[in-house]
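Lecture notes, part 5. Sequence design as translation. It can be helpful to think of inverse folding as translation between two languages: the language of shapes and the language of residues. The source text, in structure tokens, appears below.
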């Protein structure tokens, strides 16, 4: 651009994958960056620029990687009162709502921890991925409960019920054994 011509890069046009909260997270004042002209409004004398448009939209390919049900070992980058930002592979960030950060021991996951997360929502248009750690261990616990319940039912079905007649036979057996013991002495 010519000297003295200014353009505006909207914060949403800085990166396809990172949620940039402030331009200083992306660049420094006075730093030269490459950008693409997105819109030129001659009447308003405005020039809209974009940095992310210099690259192909990676979200076109993310559908096959971050599909609902996919699991990844990922680090929690930071937490807030609503949840946490989680670093997924390929430099992608996801959001884990607070209720999905509960660990198996019922404590809440915190920044810096690396845990398994499952994709529970993928929104290409909104460039948003929602993940959960809680759903993984809850599912395992429920599977274990079902397995244990089935095993107990099987044992209960195969187990013979004791009757009063069985009790009489046990008493007679005990007397017989005691008698044999006395004779052996």
């Amino acid at each position: 651009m010519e000297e003295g011509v200014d353009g505006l890069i909207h914060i949403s046009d800085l990166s396809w994958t990172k949620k940039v909260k402030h331009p200083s997270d992306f660049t420094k004042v006075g730093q030269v960056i490459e950008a693409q002209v997105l819109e030129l409004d001659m009447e308003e004398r405005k020039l809209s620029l974009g940095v992310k448009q210099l690259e192909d939209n990676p979200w076109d390919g993310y559908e096959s990687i971050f599909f609902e049900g996919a699991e990844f070992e990922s680090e929690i980058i930071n937490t807030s009162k609503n949840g946490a930002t989680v670093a997924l592979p390929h430099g992608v960030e996801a959001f884990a709502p607070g209720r999905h950060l509960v660990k198996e021991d019922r404590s809440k996951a915190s920044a810096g921890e690396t845990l398994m997360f499952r994709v529970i929502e993928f929104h290409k248009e909104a460039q948003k991925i929602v993940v959960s750690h809680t759903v993984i261990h809850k599912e395992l616990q429920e599977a274990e409960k079902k397995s244990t319940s089935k095993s107990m039912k099987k044992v209960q079905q195969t187990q013979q019920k004791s009757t009063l007649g069985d009790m009489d036979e046990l008493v007679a057996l005990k007397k017989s054994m005691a008698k044999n013991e006395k004779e052996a002495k």
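The translated text above is only one of many valid answers, since several sequences can fold into similar shapes. The chain has a mean pLDDT of 84.
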